[in-house]
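Q: what sequence does this backbone want?
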């Protein structure tokens, strides 16, 4: 199949290109240069997808079977100070990509987020739970979901959470870098979520494309690694696996950290539907973290 990936030089985009290029013709689009992955330069277009005419023209030229729309304004705090940019990229441009899919009869896979929820639920969120975002990022990602739903019949919205992997700004790298410079790290201990390895998510997306896309019931699917933790617990695990010593980690509250964007206190996603359609869960996040730390070591 011919698969066009927006945000192909980002964290998930890179993992998807690497995973899908073995079996499919993959074309990447990103505002950044081609990422170091299996994508050949000839299969990559460096362009700004907020340029409506340019992206529609490119979609019509490529005429892909599937578009996986990963590009987004993913800076959660940045979205609070620049809501216009969040609206443009996460909502208007998502609607343009959906329009392109309609013109070329392409299937659209839209990557969404656990941040569409307010975090008040006491158990994991299923696909049936009603979203209620509490920050601009979550609100615009949800409006992106709505734009896709309103315009298309052939689409799948995949919600995931707390991504880590190479090629993007992520918690694991931030903690490891801070541990080199600071003697004490304060980490939030009142938000619970599912850390998810971009490589594992890419594998799950590839398998859904190969096996379930034609028959999937319902158009919303949660996919994360198994298990859950707080950011503090995540940081402690990173410290343990990376053998970091001589640096203290202190648990703090979200209020103490005082970030511009509010975050849901509990945004664990229930993966039962993914298990039912694929007959498996993704591996536990601790196992995924071990593999990511190995990947980092091997890339040095
Ligand atoms: N990261 C997470 O924890 C997380 C959790 C849940 C869901 N998600 C969703 O998963 C998807 C992938 O996330 P990610 O973390 O892999 O994102 P990412 O690393 O930020 O990658 C997004 C890519 O899109 C590019 N891009 C931004 N604006 C563009 C434009 N106007 N035209 C073309 N390309 C543009 C970015 O370039 P620049 O870097 O130069 O902006 C970046 O290379 C997103 O839709 C996100 O909402 C992410």
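A:
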């Amino acid at each position: 199949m011919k698969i066009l990936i927006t945000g192909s030089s980002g964290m998930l985009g890179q993992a998807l290109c690497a995973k899908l290029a073995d079996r499919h013709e993959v074309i990447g689009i990103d505002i950044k240069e081609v990422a170091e992955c299996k994508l050949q330069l000839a299969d990559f277009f460096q362009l700004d997808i907020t340029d409506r005419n340019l992206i529609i023209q490119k979609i019509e030229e490529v005429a892909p079977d599937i578009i996986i729309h990963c590009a987004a304004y993913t800076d959660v705090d940045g979205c609070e100070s620049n809501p216009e940019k969040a609206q443009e990229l996460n909502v208007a441009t998502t609607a343009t990509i959906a329009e392109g899919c309609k013109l070329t009869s392409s299937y659209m896979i839209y990557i969404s987020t656990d941040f569409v929820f307010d975090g008040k639920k006491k158990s994991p969120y299923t696909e049936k739970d009603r979203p209620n975002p509490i920050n601009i990022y979550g609100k615009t990602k949800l409006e992106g979901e709505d734009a896709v739903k309103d315009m298309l019949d052939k689409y799948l919205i995949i919600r995931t959470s707390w991504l880590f992997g190479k090629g993007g700004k992520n918690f694991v790298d931030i903690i490891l870098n801070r541990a080199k410079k600071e003697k004490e790290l304060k980490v939030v201990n009142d938000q619970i979520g599912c850390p998810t390895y971009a490589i594992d998510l890419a594998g799950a997306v590839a398998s859904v494309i190969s096996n379930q896309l034609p028959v999937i019931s319902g158009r919303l699917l949660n996919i994360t690694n198994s298990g859950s933790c707080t950011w503090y617990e995540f940081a402690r695990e990173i410290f343990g696996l990376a053998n970091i010593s001589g640096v203290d980690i202190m648990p703090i509250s979200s209020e103490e950290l005082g970030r511009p964007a509010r975050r849901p206190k509990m945004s664990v996603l229930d993966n039962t539907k993914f298990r039912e359609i694929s007959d498996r869960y993704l591996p536990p996040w601790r196992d995924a973290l071990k593999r990511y730390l190995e990947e980092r070591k091997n890339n040095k």
